[in-house]
Amino acid sequence: EAGVAQSPRYKIIEKRQSVAFWCNPISGHATLYWYQQILGQGPKLLIQFQNNGVVDDSQLPKDRFSAERLKGVDSTLKIQPAKLEDSAVYLCASSPSQETQYFGPGTRLLVL
Amino acid sequence: GENVEQHPSTLSVQEGDSAVIKCTYSDSASNYFPWYKQELGKRPQLIIDIRSNVGEKKDQRIAVTLNKTAKHFSLHITETQPEDSAVYFCAAYGAAGNKLTFGGGTRVLVKP
Prior knowledge:
Largest sheet of chain B: 6 strands, mixed
Structural class of chain B: mainly beta
Oligomer: heterodimer
Order of helices and strands of chain A: EEEEEEEEEEE
Order of helices and strands of chain B: EEEEEEEEEEE
Shape of chain A: globular
Structural class of chain A: mainly beta
């Protein structure tokens, strides 16, 4: 079974620039999550999708972050404009059941 | 919302010894408790999980115990090996929020 795919794996941008991350979940998994993992901390949920609908985006900084999952499969997470404190690993996860989650390799973002 | 505390933050053990990581949670309605292992620069990987109707679960050298009354759960690794060195995260799935909340992580170092 193929795992969760993410791209790019690394990204370096300057503050105030825009960046987008892509995620392809495990086939058949209806639930998709985006997490932010700051160095030395546990993953923090940014947004949760069930198919193409948003279930929880309470911790998404909506003034600069946006995410979509238009066809209920792939998803993109965008930051515009980026700030220094956005430097982190952005993890995508998918789940068949809203409990057991499988993580992708993450995108490591560095904002200079 | 759910709050998960994890201790210790770092743990150094001699190869062959046991390692124990403890987590407490705040939401008494939480019903699913996974443990993830994250090696440096890699994705979090699910290593074991337990549901609230079970008190203990074992898989080879790892085991998890759950005390619902006290709202705490623990990961036990026996006969530790150098490849057990990683950061371990506990998490709790809260029925109220329908999401996983992660602990802060424990960095385990197994010394040969």
